[in-house]
Design a protein that fits this description.
This is 2'-5' RNA ligase family protein. The chain has 165 residues and is α+β, with helices and mostly antiparallel strands. 27% of the residues lie in helices and 33% in strands. The longest helix has 14 residues.
Length: 165
Amino acid sequence: MYSLNVPIPGQVARVASDLFPYLAPFDRVRDRHTLVCKRFEETDYDHLRTRLHEALRGAPAFEARITDVEYFEDPPRGSAPVVYLAVESPGLVSLHERLVDEFGAVDGLEGDDYTPHVTLARGGSIADARSLASHDIDPVEWTVSQLDLYDAEFRETAASISLPA
C-alpha cells in the first residue's frame, strides 16, 4: 500500500517530542510522525506515480497548522484511543477531495471521514487520552510545498512531488 504524505516540519516534530513524556500510558507511541493526505490501494508503483502526477497537475502549495491535541475515541482501524495533533488546512482537505474524486476513498478513513492529523500514540485508556488532550500546545504553521509518496512495504519514501505540481 502507498500513501501520499505531507512532510512534517521540525517545529511539529518538536511539539510531538515535548509531549513524549505524557505518552507513556499508551500501548504504541509513534516515533515517526506523518500527515496522510491520501491512501492508495494500488500496488503498481509506476502506474500509480503516472496517475498521481496527472491528478496533481496544477495543484498549488498550501498552508497547514497544528492547533491542539485531540483523540479518536473509536477509530475505524487499530487500537483505541488514538491521540493526535489536530491539523487545520483547507488546502489539504481540498487536495484530499480532489484525489478521492480521482482514486476513490478508503472506507472509514477518507472522503467525509477524513480528519487531517499527526498521530502521537494509540491504545490505552480514554482517561489518559482526555488528559493529554487537555495540554495546550503552541500552534505551528507552515507552507506545504512538497508531498511524499510513501511505500508502506519498504517503509520509505518512494518519490517526492513539489508543489505547485
